[in-house]
Design a protein that fits this description.
The chain contains twelve helices and 22 strands. The protein is of the alpha+beta class and about 425 residues long. It folds into three domains: about 1-25 and about 400-425; about 25-40 and about 310-395, Sandwich (Peptidoglycan synthesis regulatory factor (PBP3), Domain 2); about 55-305, Beta-lactamase, CATH 3.40.710. The protein has a five-stranded antiparallel β-sheet, with no helix packed on it. A five-stranded antiparallel β-sheet has the order 3-2-13-12-11. It has a three-stranded antiparallel β-sheet with strand order 4-8-7. Helix 3 (about 85-95) runs parallel beside helix 6 and helix 6 crosses helix 7 (about 155-165). Pfam families: PBP5_C, Peptidase_S11. GO terms for molecular function: serine-type D-Ala-D-Ala carboxypeptidase activity. Pathway: Cell wall biogenesis; peptidoglycan biosynthesis. It catalyses: Preferential cleavage: (Ac)2-L-Lys-D-Ala-|-D-Ala. Also transpeptidation of peptidyl-alanyl moieties that are N-acyl substituents of D-alanine.
């Protein structure tokens, strides 16, 4: 009997000492950073494009991800002429009623060519003015629309800049709804970068809640509109020549001013691939056709060069992670993704490979819970993050503390008492 009591006391003391040791503070967890790194490779075809296109700034963008696939001087702001009107149109669709009657002001009627030749005081359906805006690029229609939606050209320009920033544009200064060469009160010229114009077209053609109506308008070959009285009618013809020449051209808008030169912004879609293109400063008179030549080269390059690749790393395994103060010494790590979700498709060139960066701890502090986020797997293409997946603890590991030690002691005592009673025949 005395030996058993001594044994119980020894176990209790040992448990208490162990608990006190486990409560001593330790340093923070150390993280492992693994990189499956692939440096950026400039494709030979892209190098050729950089040398042969006429545009002083251009962008080819993946419309699905928003990733810039190829570019020249993508982030410098330049005048962009009537390509401005794609933003004017989408704002009017989102914030206006197509059935509204729009009264023409003296200011709208005084706009220079190209114009519908509306007269002050006349009224037109907002929807009809959007066809005038996008098919014939009428400057007076743009101002009438802006005044109707914003109250004034200046207020509408504020809306344009705000919307552009909301969708991720960084180098824009919208001063007019029609793209004429003007500056604001601070001397900032009406301008935008090629990357921002490609981004705006991506929003208009694929992301806006009104993108289907936008596409319907910009894909219309011709339309006849009238004023409210029905006494004046106008025939409108679409000036986007590529609509009838290239089936993959989903939408587009031309533009020209003395400062901007010939410009073109377009959306393309074919074989499950979608792109947007922005061409700024693509020649001056007499080189009106340079924009079409550049567009065809980028069109062919995009669909010939880029294809869908699954870049998800299914072979990745993680080492067991030490759990300090844990009732179990280690735990496994997992991405916790079912097999059907272990896929990540990207439009890539054949020579582009992902840079996958894994960050996870070498040790954790108990308690650890199953499903607890402890790290991250990040996917990069040419140093741009395109996806991220959390890394989780795969199982629960309780913490060794006084309570755990005492529970162990109690469990031990219960077993000992049962053994003792059986020995004594109680």
């Amino acid at each position: 009997m005395g030996d058993r009591i001594k044994k119980w006391i020894a176990v209790l003391l040992a448990g208490s000492i162990l608990a006190m040791i486990q409560l001593v503070p330790v340093g923070g967890a150390v993280f492992v950073r693994e990189n499956i790194e692939n440096k950026e490779i400039l494709g030979e075809k892209e190098t050729s494009l950089q040398q042969t296109l006429h545009a002083r700034a251009w962008v080819l963008m993946d419309a699905d991800s928003g990733r810039i696939l190829a570019e020249k001087d993508a982030d410098t702001a330049y005048p962009m002429a009537s390509t401005t009107k794609i933003l004017t149109c989408i704002l009017a669709l989102e914030q206006g009623n197509p059935d509204d009657w729009v009264e023409v002001s003296e200011k709208a009627a005084s706009m220079p060519d190209v114009q519908l030749n509306m007269r002050a005081g006349e009224r037109y359906r907002l929807s009809d003015l959007l066809y005038s805006l996008m098919l014939e690029s009428h400057n007076d229609s743009a101002v009438a629309v802006a005044e109707h939606i914003g109250g004034s050209v200046e207020e509408f320009a504020e809306k344009m800049n705000r919307k552009a920033r909301e969708i991720g544009c960084k180098n824009v200064c919208f001063v007019t709804p029609n793209g004429l060469d003007v500056a604001d009160a601070d001397g900032n010229e009406h301008s935008a970068s090629a990357s921002d114009m490609a981004r705006i077209m991506r929003y208009c053609a694929f992301q806006s809640p009104c993108h289907e109506t936008f596409l319907k308008i910009t894909r219309t070959a011709s339309r006849t509109i009238q004023d409210e009285s029905g006494k004046r009618s106008f025939y409108l013809a679409n000036h986007n020549a590529l609509l009838s020449q290239c089936a993959e051209v989903l939408s587009g808008k031309t533009g020209f001013t003395g400062k901007a030169g010939y410009c073109y912004v377009a959306a393309l879609k074919k074989e499950g691939k979608a792109f947007t293109v922005a061409l700024l400063g693509c020649g001056w008179p007499p080189h009106k056709t340079y924009k079409w030549a550049d567009m065809r080269k980028l069109d062919q390059y995009a669909f010939d060069t880029y294809d869908w690749y699954d870049i998800f790393d299914r072979e990745k395994t993680f080492p067991e992670v030490e759990v300090r103060r844990g009732v179990k010494g280690t735990t496994a790590l997992t991405l916790n993704l079912p097999s059907e979700k272990q896929m990540f498709l990207m439009l890539l060139r054949a020579d582009e490979k992902p840079d996958i960066r894994y960050e996870y701890p070498t040790e954790l502090e108990a308690p650890v819970h199953e499903g607890q986020e402890v790290g991250q797997a990040s996917y990069y293409i040419n140093d741009e993050q395109v996806a991220a997946y959390p890394i989780y603890a795969a199982e629960t590991v309780e913490k060794i503390d006084y309570g755990w030690c005492l529970r162990r002691c109690v469990t031990y005592f219960e077993r000992e008492f049962q053994s003792m009673w059986q020995t004594w025949g109680v």
